[in-house]
Structures are given as structure tokens and as C-alpha cells.
Amino acid sequence: MSVFTEIITENLVNGIEVNLTGFGVFRQVVRSERDGVNPKTGAKIKIKASKGVAFRAGKTFKEAVKNS
Q: pTM higher than 0.70 for the full model?
């Protein structure tokens, strides 16, 4: 793993948002426990709480991709 990804990973694990100006923001999201349905059987299930990562693209990055 590169130093770049190690730093982002370490900060996200510690709940720290990573802002790369012009590129975007990485942040940790917490999803609460919720009810769901097994699509195969139709049975109701509980989906456990979990943590994930969200990325919001910055304006400069969005415009570069849009205009390419």
C-alpha cells in the first residue's frame, strides 16, 4: 500500500475526514441497524449496523471529468 492510501486509511479509521482540495472529500459513514427483506425468500431480516466510506468529488475534479 502506498503512503497516500495509508494516510487516508489511518485517518478514516480514526474518524477524521480527509479533504483533498480540488479533488474531493473522503469521510467515514455509520449506517444504523435497519430492517430489510431477503429478495430470494421474502423473509424479513435485520441488517446490522456498519461503517463505510463516502467520497464527495470536488468542483475542480467534477469539471475536469465533465469536460473531458
A: yes
Grid coordinates given for 23: 479533488
Whose CA is closest to 18, among 6, 27, 10? 27
Task: Give me the pLDDT at residue 62, please.
Answer: 94
Q: Which of 9, 4, 21, 14 is nearest to 56 (CA)?
A: 21
**pLDDT tens digits, residue range 21-43?**
999 999 999 999 999 999 999 99
> How far, CA to CA in Å, does 45 sit from each of 7, 35, 62?
36, 6, 38
